[in-house]
Amino acid sequence: MLKPYFKSDDKMFYLLHGDTMKLLSQFEHQFDMVFADPPYFLSNNGLSIQSGKVVSVNKGNWDKSHGFDYINNFNRTWLQLIREKLKDDGTIWISGTYHNIFSVGQILQELGFKILNVITWEKNNPPPNFSCRYFTHSAELIIWARKSEKIPHYYNYELMKQLNGDKQMKDVWKLPAIARWEKSCGKHPTQKPLSVLTRIILASTKPGAWILDPFAGSSTTGIAANLANRRYLGIDLEKEFLEISKNRKLEILDSQVAENYRKKISGFETKNQLKEYLSAEPQPKEKVALGYVRSKDLGKLKKTNTFYFHATDKQGHFIDFPYEINNAKKLIIYSGGRTKPFYLTSYCAEIESIKIKHKSKIEGKENSKTEYYFEVQLKEQFVENNNVNLDIDLKKLIKQYCKENQIKSADYKPILLDEVFVYK
Ligand SMILES: C[S@@+](CC[C@H](N)C(=O)[O-])C[C@H]1O[C@@H](n2cnc3c(N)ncnc32)[C@H](O)[C@@H]1O
């Protein structure tokens, strides 16, 4: 079973420990946006200058140079895997330098992504070039691409324009390199500044969006995402970096610290502009979970305050990671399917909590073909709610839901619908 290394109490921040290449295929969740800062493969024993001192450019074993074929194979493998994790209208941002960015750009196009922009992030405080034989390295490149040539993506044009003095935002961003206050939980050798990630996230996602970082490091992506009310899953090989990530999240669970950080993030005209913008954004709608029960079992519902959804598919992969179903506050039962079309019943209950359980721990499900279940604890037993809209075309809504979430068939799995569809 895929167990998160860390999951925050507010269910906005998840970390997985291990190799992205192996972990990405072990869960089914699809994301609105991916930010990836993959190894640049520049740890070749060269030298640079930091705070006036000559330092090695080596970052760690994960960043060692292994030649072009290795870099291309590495990039092709993770980009192929990540494509499956992106919603059809989703976008991906990949940062790099000349060591890896041309390889990434070519492979993106080979795989059918459409490149939207190549952002030049110009650091206004770069380290000097001590050889004095070429220009100071003062920029990093960030490719922005969408999954599909044809399916439109989201771009927050108005906000970007506003942040650029009411002129269209350019693809050259002048933002400072990492500041000391961003390293309060420890040092990662290639930590990105929150200002860059905040601009990326606000430009390309809506509130509540799910964001994936397959090379999380200290989870700058996750911190920027959560500070902007977006959700995050990060993956890294090194426990040391996951600990920094976890501590950074624990730090911003304190709303005062979070507020303070929002004020310090560069790229805004005033200290309060980010806070004000976020509070004016529409909040994501609450979801209602639909659960399937055979017609002959409907009568038993009023005697229980526990409900089980399948949590793994036939291959044993989680059908919903990181537990999107946790967003549901209410559970409504639907039935039908074999002898008559799917229909909504009026059985309704408030959800107390949702946990993942193995079949061996659930009475009556020990011999099930499904390995894991979502155990939904209800606040009280099911009641019949007269406001449930029994006339809705459930078949159509389920079909639409499956299409949007790229699920082949929905039976027994949780379906999440907006409240407006379910109530009169
Ligand atoms: C360039 S750093 C990311 C830094 C990050 N953007 C930040 O702000 O802290 C790349 C990270 O990828 C991790 N990494 C390298 N190869 C990996 C792999 N195959 N699976 C998971 N993580 C990997 C490294 O441990 C490193 O922390």
Automatic annotation (TrEMBL):
Q: Which GO terms describe its cellular component?
A: cytoplasm
Q: Per its record, how is this protein called by name? A: Methyltransferase
Enzyme class (EC, first level): transferase
- What's the family? Belongs to the N(4)/N(6)-methyltransferase family.
Q: Which residues form the DNA methylase N-4/N-6 domain?
A: 32-246
Q: Which residues form the signal peptide?
A: none
| PANTHER family per UniProt | RNA METHYLASE-RELATED, TRNA (GUANINE(10)-N2)-METHYLTRANSFERASE HOMOLOG
Q: Which UniProt keywords apply?
A: Methyltransferase, Transferase
Q: What is its EC number?
A: 2.1.1.-
Q: Which Gene3D superfamilies match?
A: Vaccinia Virus protein VP39
Organism superkingdom:
Bacteria
GO terms, molecular function: DNA binding; N-methyltransferase activity; site-specific DNA-methyltransferase (adenine-specific) activity
Biological processes, Gene Ontology terms: methylation
Please name the Pfam families in this protein's record: N6_N4_Mtase
